[in-house]
Design goal:
Distance between the termini: 38 Å
Number of strands: 12
CATH topology: TIM Barrel
Mean pLDDT: 94
CATH superfamily: NADP-dependent oxidoreductase domain
Structural class: alpha/beta
Strand order of the largest sheet: 3-12-11-10-9-6-5-4
Radius of gyration: 19 Å
Strand content: 15-25%
Largest sheet: 8 strands, parallel
Amino acid sequence: MSDFPRTEVGGVSVSRMIVGSNWFLGWSHTTAAKDNYIRTEIRTRERIAAILETFLRAGVDTVMGFIAHDDFYAAIQDAEQRVGRKIIVVSTPSLPVTAQTPAQGFDLNEVARLLDAEAARGATFCLPHQGTTDAMVDRATREVRRMAPVCALIRERGMHPGLSTHMPESVVYADESGLDVDTYIQIYNSMGFLMQIEVDWVNRIIRDAKKPVMTIKPMAAGQLRPFQGLTFAWNSLRACDMVTVGTMTPAEAQECIDLSLEILEGQAANTTLQETRSKASVKTK
């Protein structure tokens, strides 16, 4: 079985391409109609498993997302059984945040209960979701407040801690404070979609990060075509960093795999182009 290029995070070998799950679960960042389409047509155990199988057979064995969702979790197990290979799970649980949390800290008993469930479902990496992480970012003190005890609880359960964030400050402050994390999830795309500062600034932050970075939304939730989004991402990141890709069909998954391999190997893209009548005048006879 061929293997997609790999990197190492916290001593764990992972594929540099990561399978994203928003397009499985119904978070399109596009329209309510698109979300509903995903939930009614894509979000089934069988369809998700078929997409995961395509990635896994190409050596893309790392998956990110909300494994508390039963169909997603079951689909991971199905794909593993079909291919005979373990999937490495990067889980992004939401932890309860209240108005008192920044000052008083998390309810660690409740956090422990939630993390027990993540560990029970086989998560290798556990990165509290952006909704948790970014609520704790303090620009005045330059820290991600109250996260050290959470990271310790993650370690105690045999998982590797990290932070999932939309804020570039999270990476900078965690590095400055020496927070015990092995990786970060950070938005990164050439369009600047959902990014809070300019793309070149985020590139510098990723480049200077003390830990490997798992980038997300390289195609700006479908607003960039794969050729544009993936060419930019693979050519502007470090060799230790990763790119998370979401797809809705096995064929889309294979296209992203093939295109990414061509880019990483410095080859011209040979993926099949889509056909429309307007292309007739430029096609070679």
